[in-house]
Model the fold of this input.
Amino acid sequence: MREFPKPKVVISKCIEFDSCRYNGQMIASDFVKSLAPYVDFMPVCPEVEIGLGVPRSSLRLVSSAEGGETRLIQPATGRDVTSVMQSFAAKFLDTLGEVDGFILKASSPSCGIKNTKAYPTAGKSAALSRSATGIFGASVLARHPDLAVEDEGRLRNPRVKEHFLAKLFTLARFREVERSGSMGELVRFQTENKMLLMAYHQNEERALGNIAANHDHRPFDEVVGDYGAHLRRAMCRAPRYTSNINVLMHILGYFKDRLSAAEKTMFLENIQRYRDGKITICPNTTLLKSWIARFEDDYLARQTFFEPYPQDLMEIDPVVSHKGRDLWK
Ligand code: SF4
Done:
């Protein structure tokens, strides 16, 4: 069983932690509940932190059609809290210390990272845009563009969740390597993540391999800084399905002379069905894992590609799982 470090995750406090929304309510999130044992959450409510009470009159983003700076306004009082929110965000992020990711409330004028409504005026008006960023969320994205940052709404999508978790736990593991000060740990990290990084970004994976090999005998701090920059670049986007297929075929290459024709055909048929979007990647990874166990390939068994985050967090849509509602009652 693989051991995972506990990533540090800043979370909007109104998600499962406190009834601090403008209307005194809390947001329920099964995902956040399931994640709680595996991460160190750091809850924060920026609106409460800047002195707005609970309950409070709601805020909205106001930006003119001609562009210009987006303001955070409390329409009921006419108060403009943009600067105070920006100052709070800067201070909070300055003093935060090490962090691996953020889970922020979707569509909030403070915490939203996208899909927040912006209005032309503080008064009664239709939204100008539905793709604005909240003021605190904008500071997070500007300060930490390379970390695992998502909103709780998008995390309901399994593909968004998969990428978020893989990135979050990989960055947390890398932070351990940074702390270790050990070149051996960096090489081990690169070795165990090789297939995962190939799936994410083949060119960056090659660059990472060269950096970790450290042919120029540079000091650890220099190497690990360089490696971290490339790692974050490699993981900035989720792997494409074609890259996943390249990795699956690459791993098949380790066994192809030891498999029967029927086994290879079954695998290749599954690859085609995955390419056609008829199945997930799971049947293929399961087949590969069974061959890794049968041929006792220790190098492949340690690849994080097969388990980039704790298995308990891997789940299928409850609607299609046998745990879903009994449809025959
Ligand atoms: S969205 Fe952010 S500011 Fe609004 S209640 Fe939640 S934590 Fe507080």
Remarks:
- The chain has two domains: 8-156, 158-315.
